[in-house]
Amino acid sequence: MLNRKVPDVTFRTRVRDESIEGPNPYRWEDRTTADFFSGKRVVLFSLPGAFTPTCSTYQLPDFEKLHDEFKAEGIDEIYCISVNDAFVMNAWAKQQGIEKVKVIPDGSGEFTRKMGMLVAKDNLGFGMRSWRYAAVVNNGLVEQWFEEEGFSDNCQSDPYGVSSPQNILENLRAEKSQAA
Ligand code: BEZ
Asked: How many CB atoms lie within 10 A of CB 41?
């Protein structure tokens, strides 16, 4: 995975637009891989589903809390991606009070499939979802890779450890001190 380019896809996002009247002032906005990744050093983390317990209790809120510490390590943005549509991803970010981490809806699973990270979660009635992983992506190239152990379809457990923000920060700091 290291040094691979993240796949070129178009994400169908929903953005607020105050010029739209009525109770639901949102419109579709297509954003591409280039929009999110070109010319930036980012952390991307991918998880099995919005609103699921580990993702909602630890992973997303911890990335939000540690956002400024990532900035101090030279990270421009933190992106949370999941095989969920834009309505679900926006509702989850709102419910979690997320202001700094940006959510990316991969509703069709195209990005996740092309990353080689799509797994079946039919045992939970989820269909195809993302295996849990994270990456430091520099101008579209994978610079660091953090994949949870046991990649498999219909996994009974959903490991969470190496892709935690704490572990990624530790790696970024260790890398910086080695370079110094
Ligand atoms: C979670 O706790 O994050 C989780 C639960 C069920 C399926 C996938 C993830």
From this structure: 17
How does pLDDT run along the chain (180 residues), one tens digit per residue? 899 999 999 999 999 999 999 999 999 999 999 999 999 999 999 999 999 999 999 999 999 999 999 999 999 999 999 999 999 999 999 999 999 999 999 999 999 999 999 999 999 999 999 999 999 999 999 999 999 999 999 999 999 999 999 999 999 999 988 998
In this structure, the residues whose C-beta lies within 6 A of any atom of ligand 1 are 48-49, 52-55, 124, 158
Domain boundaries, the chain: 10-179
> Whose Cα sits closest to atom 4 in ligand 1?
52
Check residue 56 and report its DSSP letter.
I
Rounded distance from Cα 61 to ligand 1 centre (Å): 15
Which pTM value belongs to this model? 0.97
Catalytic residues: 55
CATH number of 10-179: 3.40.30.10
CA dihedral 130, 136, 137, 138 (to 10 degrees): 180
